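Troubleshooting: if your tokenizer reports a length mismatch, compare your output against this known-good record of 224 residues.
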Amino acid sequence: MRILLIEDEFKLANAIKRALELQKYAVDVANDGTAGLDLAVGEDFDLIILDIMLPGIDGMEICKKVREEGSHIPVLMLTAKGQISDKVLGLDIGADDYMVKPFSFEELFARVRALIRRPKNMNTSLLKTKNLTLDTLKFKVTREGKQISLSTKEFSILEYLLRNKNRVVSRDQLVSHVWNYDADVLPNVVEVHIKHLRDKIDAPFADKIIQTIRGKGYMIEEEA
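Known-good structure output:
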């Protein structure tokens, strides 16, 4: 899952980025409102974490413009302000949640998980297909009751494919959601990770989960 963090406090931004990356998210950071808005409307993210007080364009205006573009991406607003009026204004212009600084990373992780799974799965952190289960809270994958150890990128690829079951996911979509903006991803990197993932979740089993759709990408297909 790919997150955009728009935060002008460099130390805080770096700390949040590192913490989220340890939770297996790909994180892009913008340190001013103008750069943040460009990324928010020009790139594909699963969540925006947005500070209100920003140089250039403030967070309220960024959120407003993102919604005017027709985007329904979840937005979590961060601010040092705790007044009820600020919370109400932020929620009214389209933010999905609101956190007041200082906050614990544990609370941030919980809010992020809730917002990311909200559009497609409100009630569970478990993603399943056939006899495979992925737990987004424990970062645990099992098949036929056997735990499978995956790398961070393998886990993220599998999670994205499971969240988009019965849809073809292109290589470009995987790069956009699993790697951050600055990553130098070579053309065959996705194929290499898919091969390693298949070696772990498909090769030892008769029933294969990940399908290659020639010329288009990959898919996990599940009958209704």
